[in-house]
Amino acid sequence: MSLPDDPARQRVITLSVDVFVTIGILALFMALSFTLIAPFASILIWSVILAVALAPAFDWMSAKMGGRRGRTATVFALLGLVIIIGPTVMIVNSLIDSVGEMVAHLSDGTLRLPAPPETVRDWPLIGARLFETWQEASVDLLALSAQYAPKLREVAATLAGAGAGLIVGVLQFALSVIFAAVFLAWAAPLAEATGRVAGRISGRGRAMTAMASKTIQNVSRGVIGVAIVQGGLAAVGIIVAGLPLGGILAGAAVMACVIQMPPLVIIPLIILDWAINPTLHAALFTLYMVPVLFLDNVLKPILMARGLTTPMVVIMIGVIGGTLSMGLLGLFIGPVILALFYEMVTTWIAFEAKGLDPTTGEPVPPHPAE
């Protein structure tokens, strides 16, 4: 027995089919669009992060140049490229010179290591083995390097791959600087469009967008800015102290500070200085490097929570978790996502406690009695 045709039911079915077809077509176009922009995704994300982080500096420079945003963007991009490429070339040249000098001395047998102090033998776990290897290296470094040649080749191949990746990363970052300058030149219309999209998604979309922008600016100051200052001071200390292979060690110290792990390089350098240099030299080096080691612990809390209602612990969890899961890019994305989630949860709890609709802010009508 067939049911009679219901016009209302037919309209619902037709509307449902239209909705599913529309959603399917939109999903298809979105998937294709993401596929097309996927190769440039990291560059575009970095461009947005740089544009947001550097917006105050760009506005100041634009005001000094008479409000000509296009010309300011050109100057801004050129300055950014000089700042990125200049130190990179200097570090690469220093690394090449250091490695070349080490290889040359190793080949002609003139590279010598000082004999290890007897105190090294008493170090827990690694002392005896380290003393023995160090002693062999101080007697005949060339023979020891030949003994460990296969492992050294593996390490060299790994370092070469890391160097190639670093060069690609620098080139991508240079492109990001150029795109960021373009975004800054068109900051007002882009900000308005972003605010409209965020407003369509949520009633608090514009407030969330402003908070995300503030979070990126604070993280850039509190993480990258502090890391550059900390790494620069560490590099100066290494070069002034005259440690062997100073260019390589200085570059390693800067990278360790950028990835938020300065003890990974600074502590071994302090130990090395005590092992190979006189007591006064090592004491002065330690007195300089210990404050540098803890510099980020002092400056980060001051800079990262400025102007935000999000607790500092939420920002730091986002920074650490984002860095561990997504690398350097996650250092910015992590705290933004976690801060937005925190604000959404606290807003939802506050509106629910006041009996308001979280999406509209209007009072929720009481449920009719059953």
TrEMBL record:
Compartmental location: Membrane
Q: Where do transmembrane segments lie in this chain? A: 12-37, 43-61, 73-96, 159-186, 223-243, 249-272, 279-295, 315-342
The record's similarity note reads: Belongs to the autoinducer-2 exporter (AI-2E) (TC 2.A.86) family.
Q: Which GO cellular component terms, listed alphabetically, does the Swiss-Prot or TrEMBL entry include?
A: membrane
Protein name, entry field = Predicted PurR-regulated permease PerM
Kindly give the InterPro entries that the UniProt entry links to this protein.
AI-2E-like (IPR002549)
Report the membrane topology from the UniProt record: Multi-pass membrane protein
Record keywords, A-Z: Membrane, Transmembrane, Transmembrane helix
What is the organism of origin for this protein?
Answer: Albimonas pacifica
Keyword Transmembrane helix among record annotations: yes
Pfam families, alphabetically? AI-2E_transport
Name the predominant localization.
membrane
